[in-house]
From TrEMBL:
Residues 400-541 form the NACHT domain. Keywords: ANK repeat, Repeat. It comes from the Eukaryota. Coiled coil: none annotated. InterPro entries: Ankyrin_rpt, Ankyrin_rpt-contain_sf, NACHT_NTPase, NLR-like, NPHP3-like_N, Nucleoside_phosphorylase_d, Nucleoside_phosphorylase_sf, P-loop_NTPase. The keyword Repeat applies. ANK repeats lie at residues 851-883, 884-916, 919-951, 954-986, 989-1021, 1022-1054, 1055-1087. GO terms for biological process: nucleoside metabolic process. The lineage of its organism: Eukaryota, Fungi, Dikarya, Ascomycota, Pezizomycotina. One of its GO terms (molecular function) is catalytic activity. SMART domains: ANK. This is Ankyrin repeat protein.
Amino acid sequence: MASRKDLESPDFYTVGWIAALPIELAAATAMLDEEHGEPCNFDQPHHDTNIYTWGRIGEHNVVITSLAAGVYGTTSAATTATCMLSSFPHIRIGLLVGIGAGIARPEEGRDIRLGDVAVSQPEGSSGGVIQYDLYKAKAGNQRESRAFLNRPPEVLLKALARLQAEHERKPSRVSEFLAQMAKANPRMVRQRQGYVYQGVENDRLYKATDPNEEIRREPRDSSEPEIHYGTIASGNTLLKDAIHKDRILEDIGQECICFEMEAAGLMNTFPCLVIRGICDYGDSHKSDQWQRYAAATAAAYTKELLAYIPTQDLQKTQKAINILKDISGSVTQIHSITTTTAAVVEGLSEDSQYRKIKEWLSTPDPSINLNEAIEKHHEGTGSWLLESEPFNEWKSGKRRHLWLHGIPGCGKTVLSATIIKHLYQQLNFSHAVLYFFFDFTNTDKQSLNKLVRSLAMQIYSRCESSRTDLGKLFSLCEEGGQQPTFKSLFATFLQMIDHLETIYIVIDALDECNTRSNLLLWIETLTSSRPAGPQLLVTSRREEDIESELKRWLCPGSHVAIQHDPVNQDICAYIHKRLQTDREFERWQSEPSVQNEIETELMKKADGMFRWAACQLDMLQKCLDLRMLRASLRSLPKTLQETYARILASIDRNYQQYAIRILQFLTYSTRPLTIQEAVDVIVVDPSGDPYFDPSLRMPNPQDIMKVCSSLVSLVIKQDSARTETFMELQLAHLSVQQYLKSRIIGEAFPRGMATIGEIFQTSLREISARADITRVCLAYLECLREQGAHRELKAEFPLAEYSAQYWMYHARTVETEKDVSDRILNFFDHQSQVSAVWIELFGERRWRDGSMPTPLYLASLAGLQHTAQLLLKKGADVNAQGGRYGNALKAASSQGHKAIVQLLVEKGADVNNPTRGLYYGSALHAASSQGYKDIVQLLVEKDADVNACSGGLAGGNVLQAASSQGHKDIVEILLANGADANAPGGGFDYGGPLEAASYEGHKEIVQLLLVKGADANGQGGYYETPLQAASSQGHKEIVQLLLENGADINAQGGDYGSALEAASYEGHKEIVQLLLQNGATVNVRNMAVLSKRL
């Protein structure tokens, strides 16, 4: 530690560190890089009785304090924190660092040991800490913890994410900092139970049910502490023994990793992260032996974490004292909110509603893409855009729209992430930043529908006043029992953004959306929907369809080309940084002239392509001497295609078949592979015996990166519940996929390697690739016949779920190949254990009503026409029951497989089969709802009942289904073939076809139905009348149309009571005026709504 010095003012201290015990304070002080004296202008308030230690760690000035000796618990911690903030008002973040009791569950994969470190990390509704001694009564004298506490500041969570990612690649520096501590403070390690590792023989875990029976655990390879992230349980109650601990955990009802006794007093009063070294297991065997070492490991981890918080980010973080505007300093007042039962119940209700709506919308998480892009961002790059006039005009509101476009590989996604990060740092709380990344590697992020769902959910989570709008749509969809139509979801989204003063929307990679024409139309509609709509920024390649559409309404000044010169400056900075920091380039660090040579040669050909520069650096890392390096620099490829060909050509011959297999899956699959799936992909041998031998798996899964080099990337992701992280293998860039799907793979290969190029070209053609993928998946599934339960099976055989869900998708293209066809037929013996396991993984067993789905049903559902023909030839029952859709005909109709529908009908399928699956009452109902016009026409010609009513989840009758979904051409076919325009719906929300079309805003269908005799006053359903349905959703033209056709303006009933009350309640002023002008009656009840809402 450097010599002491004094800072001028306490305002220089931005990090507050609280240690409960003297040993924790000692460990914290030992981690300081520099110790300070009392600040010169420090005037400690009289009510602040804390004693402080000051110092510096890295770039941050830190003030440390502890609780009074012998005092512990949440209240004392809250008092200490409140006093600290009053004395140091410039503190931005807090750190509660010390010891805790580990919650080890080795049988569940949570192998926490003494000396390890537990870190609070938000999960779901929890901010990372839950108070276990505040309860809500439950039936049966049970108790349930209800104290979910605040999240740590965003700057800490971002640092956590960066550090976790770093630890995936490199070991933690905790041991390094402990060694430095020991060298600087030898007394700390000389004590008998000092700040050193206490030995594996002193780390024993016992069963809760038998405190004398030790749990055997596999020895670790190293004594270095491991880091665990999750929820920490905090309270004032001392743990008596393991049974007491387990009872508390049962009450909490949430997975936790650690117990401690101060954090719950801080999370709502002091924006902090909780870091605990594990000193015991909270059982009857606990002792003090590990406490000093645990305090030291927690402090060392904290020091490592601080290095990942840039000072500029910390300065932009709101002061902790300002976050806590409603805190008066009184501990009683601080805790009063947590003891107000009504507030707690209300908060939990909101959490529950949030989870339900999020699950209902099934929104993809764009923060994953954002974090990946931010990790790739190099400090200082992208500043040319942030400082540009068009961008600043857009940010200030002078310009409402921006389109950034550039060549493949120029860094558009990283630039988008830079913009989002900049907006978050610069804007105040009255502004909202929404974002979405279209992603070619993830089908869940390739559609307009998913974009709007994601944006709506982002507003819901950020803007409390907007939640009513989405909550109403959720209620209208039978509390999530039905999915919203796109039109109703978009209308709700527009209502939600009205609650925000200013809203910024950043959408990256329009060219990676699979519904581009609809997306471009939606963007135009969004920008013209409000006089002062959202500030919209989009990025894409400069592709003809995108450019022509945007040019129609976007002014030329809002087209921002990503120019080569400023991007080249960023590329130069990126190259320079990698040459200085990449371990593989350390060999040249003592030769700056060589580094300059690399930089110069790369910049000659970079031509604005970040991706190109990154690939060259990856290849140059392999050059071990100057001769190899210069040879590589002289022969640098000119284009990305040549670059990718070089990478393929350089793959070791021993790895070529592995590389081909991996690239086949990643190029033609609809999602990436987990690293465990990828490992099993290359082990499968469809012509071997056995097909799959687990003992042949790679011992180190990450070695798979050596197989495909720069063509793939390994990304750390979290599961949907955010409880576990996993590693995912994906193609490194869209340009890689485009190259591998092209016909020029062999042409781009270096001279003399044409044969290898042809091997890759042939293997990566779609037919060859999908055939190989189908063979691998079926072979893998064949090996599961003797396996056990679903969950255990997926854990032991990671590729099982992918194989079950996607083999038919690939087989559809190649099922006529003789060996593939034979494999499919052999596999389709549904009596076999193999097929039963597959159906369980595929998800059909969950929907069955007692009978298993037949092979014909499954082939029809998947679109396997050739297989269906062969099964019918072998005598398959065309009307057999089973599966979620009930029979093969409904399954094929629901998916739009016209050729299979034709085949099944020709073979005697009953078009009016009364079999009721979970969805749709008939094949015609399925096709009408999904918009498959040709199938509707075919079924009608085969005498399908056009007035059949469904009892399944889709609800309603055939005409209602087509009307609600806006399928005008199908409505015309149904009406022309005798459909009753006034038939009662029988569904969940709509009284009939006219009410359905009126609610969804389909004006042309409303007109068509009225012409065909639909009753404008038809009753039933959620809204009772079409007029009330249209009024509630703001469809003014439809309201006018219904009035012109005799709709009763004062009809009573439905959810709102009347059309006037519906329009008033929803705030549709123009419709209210229209209704009043046409004689709507104002009474006491609707007058109250009018005055309140308008």
